[in-house]
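Lab meeting minutes (informal)
Scribe: AK
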Amino acid sequence: MFNVPIDHVMVPGLHISLGLYVKLFDLLEADLQDIDVKLQSYLESVLSEGEVSKDDLLADEHLGRFKSYVAAVDEARALDDQADAIEDELEEQESQLAWLAYKDGVEDAMAEVVFDEACSMVQDLYQQKESLRAKADAIRTKASVKKGQGPLTSQMDPVLQEYSGRRQEYHG
């Protein structure tokens, strides 16, 4: 190709350094995001077990950033409680439906109508339960820690600013 003498070639040190820095920065950010998500899961288990009160948790200056998530957990837990109540009722109705089928059979038209109505009620209860579970999951997902917004990950920008750095300089 080109006949360039070796003493006229220069290694692009700045570009290599910036590339390594960006790679390390991205790895750090990903690890902090993972820790934020694990912390969020731990907080949910702590709240559900009652080890710490919600007020104590929200009073903490660092964990208070999970305020919206804690509120979402409460809302999702209320929906889960409703779904649990429906599930209990569903089990009761299924048992009664099985007993009805065993005891009376479905030979005559009246018994078949009653059986079909009971089946419809069981299906409706099942759909209500699944709907409540889906809403609870959607609430948890929506309130989940977003990338770069957790208590640890969000502290990266202030640290960069202490050293006169800005995120966009490194991420082009």
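Next up, CB showed the second protein from the same session:
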Amino acid sequence: RVRFRYKQWYQRRVRGTLVSYIYYMLTPTTPNTYWVRNKSPHMHLWHGGSSQVHLFIHPDGSLTKHRLGPDLKNGEEMQVLSPGNVWKLSYTTDQTKWSIITECVCPGWEERDFEYGDADSLSAEYPQHEDIIRQYCKKKDN
């Protein structure tokens, strides 16, 4: 007879949802996201379709780039952690194809922990990235 024992190694009391998962699909008609910031970290897991590029602007102004996809030999990753409080965006590498990922958020996603980037504010804060900021910021009328 086998007896299983376990030790609880992590517990956190939070208000709201402890963890949430969503599927996020980019398509030929919506091949990119906008610059957004979340308070909580997100784990992005690639599932299929076109590879994706994920860009992060960190609070210190550095920009990091990750490629999600199946081509591990050429530097793609199957998953990437988006830290909390960074500006992030993603786009497909082939804008004629769809791409799907899962986002896992812990603690769970809350609308109050999310914001769209404003092109003028972000460009003033990170002038070295102004071109890409303006290219992917949500327009004020959307």
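CB comment: Strands lie at 20-26, 36-38, 42-49, 52-57, 63-68, 79-82, 87-92, 99-105, 114-116.
No objections, moving on.
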